[in-house]
Write a structure and sequence with these properties.
The chain is mainly alpha-helical. Helices cover 56% and strands 5% of the residues. It has two domains: 5-200, Orthogonal Bundle (Fumarase C, Chain B, domain 1); 207-316 and 324-409 and 423-513, Fumarase/aspartase (Central domain) (Fumarase C, Chain A, domain 2), CATH 1.20.200. Strands 4-6-7 form a three-stranded antiparallel beta sheet. It has a two-stranded parallel ribbon with strand order 1-2. One of its GO terms (cellular component) is cytoplasm.
Amino acid sequence: MSMHTVVLGDSGTSPDDVIAVARDGARVELSAQALAALEASRRHIEELAAKPEPVYGVSTGFGALAVRHINPGLRAQLQRNIVRSHAAGMGPRVEREVVRALMFLRLKTLASGRTGVRAEVAQSIAALLNAGIVPVVHEYGSLGCSGDLAPLSHCALTLMGEGEAEGPDGHVAPAAELLAAHGITPVELREKEGLALLNGTDGMLGMLLLACADLARLFTSADITAALTLEALLGTDKVLAPELHAIRPHPGQAASAANMLKVLAGSGLTGHHQDDAPRVQDAYSVRCAPQVAGAGRDTLQHARTVAERELASAVDNPVVLPDGRVESNGNFHGAPVAYVLDFLAVAAADLASIAERRTDRLLDKNRSHGLPPFLAHDPGVDSGLMIAQYTQAALVSEMKRLAVPSSVDSIPSSAMQEDHVSMGWSAARKLRGAVDALTRVVAVELYAAARAVELRADGAGLTPGAASRAIVDALRGAGVDGPGPDRFLSPDLGVAEQFVRTGALVRAAESVTGELA
């Protein structure tokens, strides 16, 4: 567990805070300001609960059943029941980091004082996070509207000491046992609290923030592998000149071109495109690399803007306003988040597509400008990287399927009360798959380009740039052997994948180039 602590309530929550809690196990604390806000909003809820007039979520049923006024003696049961009945998820378990992210984001909204829960409810969520207890949440159950209902319900169920959860040791056990072992008292929910624990975009937002962090690393990684491929193909770096990108001023494009130039600095391989088989221009997959990756970078920036707005939001229904009014609203609808989740899946698929085309060019003797077929040691006897490209192509094909948007779909629910939903949770789940696949696609290009650079240097006596040498040396140091006769390829590709996934590729390049965008 991390020794870092995130304090809620003193200032805004940042994407880095979410990553620290979700992935690094950072501790969570509530500030005095947050506790005061919780207590103030709770007083408004208790005043309304004492009145005879029905108030949604406080003294009524939920969704299409909101027409029934619930008498005070049944309200605790009402809140327990909404959690139990809504914890209806099915399918595989959701990843630990995703569950921690959604719990933390729900806690962030509770700490805003806009939901009306008691301070002890928020403190109990913080205690779960700090103890490393992670509720068992299932893949299916959220429509991305009225909140990520089933996922959040499974978390609330753990808070009540019911259902199953995973302990800090990774062992799944009854929630009651885990809470008792860590000295956490199960929460007895009161008016509004069950609803407040379920009604948010926290799951889809958490996955968006995690994906943004991963994609930032992958866009930089793809710039590096594109530069290596350009170098291995003896291409020209003149197309990366800043003045060419200044006349089409997309910021992401300029950043990608600048990254590639830094990686290629001092290369003795670039600029030989007019040798043996003269080329006026490099192929699109090489020459247009900054334009494609740059468009993805700009898409990522837009997604971050949406995520930051959502982080600054207090999503609940009804919501407690600063003047004490408790008002129904539609802020739980996931459309803003769902759209950018889908948009990022499109950008990821296109980046994978262009990377695969570059890899294929490295392997084709008719287009690789002197490299051996499939980068094989003894072509015919050896198949080289032929099937690595098949694997890459299969991943790209899967990513194209994952790029089909979820947010254009809607299946009405709750007896047509909830007649338009965002499907944002589904968009987030498939984006996670796309990010995972993109990591592997970039890893295959890295593997092929590194081998091609080595073959080029060995065969023609041309010297790659210092950054390329550092990358190849680091990859070899990680356990990936250089060119040679065919061997069991899957383990090498797995090491290359981890080299990309952990950021080792970016660090190796930056050891020479300095910080890359």
